[in-house]
Design goal:
single chain, 121 residues, mainly alpha, Four Helix Bundle (Hemerythrin (Met), subunit A), 6 helices, elongated
């Protein structure tokens, strides 16, 4: 795994956090996280179109901790920056931050899909 790939998704993080390597448990967590990523992307698109900063902040906050727990470090950082921008009312960077979150969540979703497929029964 390259350094860049590790920043996008470190599949060793979740087993450490859960203190288990039981594949069924890990698969369930990764599948749930994958679903949350899909919801994040759809929700951000909708909230952005409606200029709904409160919903953007809520979406960022909701997935920030989950991202870090499963090993999606870069996404967790991007979500934290987006949440902070929404709280501080700085419009200048919010579109750039949303674009970063969407791009990073797409890369993360692809990495999680690979993880799910390579360990599927």
């Amino acid at each position: 795994m390259s350094f860049h790939e590790a920043l996008i998704f470190d599949s060793e993080q979740l087993p450490l956090a859960l203190e288990t390597r039981e594949e069924d448990v890990l698969q369930d967590f990764y599948a749930l996280f994958q679903q949350q990523l899909d919801e994040l992307q759809a929700g951000l698109a909708s909230a952005t179109a409606l200029c709904d900063r409160a919903n953007v902040r809520q979406l960022a906050h909701k997935l920030k901790s989950s991202s870090q727990a499963v090993g999606a470090i870069r996404l967790g950082e991007a979500l934290a920056a987006l949440e902070e921008s929404c709280l501080s009312w700085t419009d200048a960077d919010i579109d750039v931050l949303i674009a970063d979150v969407i791009e990073t969540s797409s890369l993360t979703a692809a990495a999680v899909r690979v993880r799910l497929q390579t360990t599927a029964p």
